[in-house]
Each structure stands twice: as C-alpha cells, then as structure tokens.
Fold:
Amino acid sequence: MTVSGDSTAGRILEAGRQLIMRRGYSGFSYADIADAIDIRKASIHHHFPTKADLAVAVLQQSQAKFDADMALLDASGADALVQMRAYIGYWERCIADDSAPFCVAGMLGAELPALPDEVARAVKAHFDDLAAWLVRVLDTGVKDGVVQPGVSVQTEAATFVSLVYGAMLAARAYGNAGMFRDVTAGAVERLAVPRNRA
Structure:
C-alpha cells in the first residue's frame, strides 16, 4: 500500500474515511470510492490491495493526526481541564459542521466482531492510545491540583471516553448535533477540584 506523497492515495483515504464515518465498514465498497472520486477500482487496489488495508490506513492516518494534535496541546502548557475541554470541543465542531460526524474508530468499534483481525487490532490500538493519553492528562491534573477524580484515573479515562463516544452516538441517533454539547457539558467540570467560595 502506498500513501506518502501520493495525491491519488490521499484522495482514496479521504473518500474511505468519509464512507466509514457515514456508513461503517460494511456499508461501502471500492465501487463507492471509485464513484466518489472518479477513479478505476484497479487504481484503488494498486494503493490498497484490500478493503482491510484501506481501513487500517484510515485509522493510522487518524491516529497520527490525533497524536500530533495532542502533542501540540500538551506543548502549549494547557492544564488537564483545558486539554480535555479541547478534545470535546474538537468533536463538537466536527459534529456541528458535519466534517466528521463520527470518529472512524468509534464507527468501526461498533462493527468489531465482524471486522478483519488487522482492522480490529487497529481499532483497539486507537482506543488504547486515547485511554493512555487521558490517563497521562488526568495524572498531570491530579499532580497540578486541578483534577480530583472520584475513582482511579484509569476508570475516569474510560468514563470520559464512554461519555464522549456515547454523546456522538446520541447526536447521530437523534439527528441533533446539539445533543453532543448537551451530553458532554459537565464531563470535565465534574473532575475539577472545587474552588474555594470565599
């Protein structure tokens, strides 16, 4: 599979990402991609021999973007609460403007039992990475005195992921982008150390 520096591969990846977000793994074929970007199926197979190869590449691309964005956020010196709000804010904007109405890993996670093994491993790797980032952020927040978890930071990280992805699902199910904002509104504040009210 070829991706780096190839605009055709990039167009295929973007079409695959959009189709996975909107239809899931089982809901599209290479014919759909060929139609979407006006390319021959043979050209798609040249870059991504199998649909699983394409799905893994889409996940890897999404993971690389997440890692780069979180590294920038961390380097900014933002505290844990600001970083978690930024993560929620990213998804709130993507859902509201329909540029990414659902995380590709989340969409694929719903189909996990039916996915090829290599795609399932890539989905799990995404969620492992997300949880590890959140645990680091929460640990730092505890050390900095801005986060007060009610349970272990590992459980708080899992709760946060569940809340964000559940809110994505609710927004989609209700056809209401504002539902995401409503559901996630208190997700970060419940972890904040209470301020003195003197």
